[in-house]
Amino acid sequence: SLADKCKRHMLQSVNLIDSQEDGDTERESLMQAYMDDEKRTEQ
């Protein structure tokens, strides 16, 4: 689905950021923000 593609793209982007700096918590917060955004757009 489109959401899955977006999610994969998001994770890939974050992984790129991750390789430059150690940011597990950053990835978590980004994913959380993304998921919250998903919920808002679905409504």
List descriptors.
mainly alpha; 43 residues
List the helices and strands and how they pair.
Layout: H1 2-20, H2 24-42
How would you summarize what this structure contains?
The protein is an all-alpha fold. Helices cover 88% and strands 0% of the residues.
Verbal overview:
- The chain is an all-alpha fold and 43 residues long.
- It has one domain (2-42).
- Helices cover 88% and strands 0% of the residues.
- It has helices at residues 2-20, 24-42.
- It is flat, with a radius of gyration of 11 Å.
Instruction: Determine the N-to-C terminus distance.
Output: 17 Å
Estimated structural class: mainly alpha
**Rg over CA atoms:** 11 Å
Number of domains: 1
Q: What's the SSE pattern?
A: HH
Strand % is under 5%
Shape: flat
Question: Which whole number gives the mean pLDDT?
Answer: 75
Instruction: Count helical runs.
Output: 2
Major β-sheet, in short?
none
Query: What portion of residues is helical?
Result: over 70%
**Poorly predicted residue ranges:** none
DSSP summary, beta strand count: 0
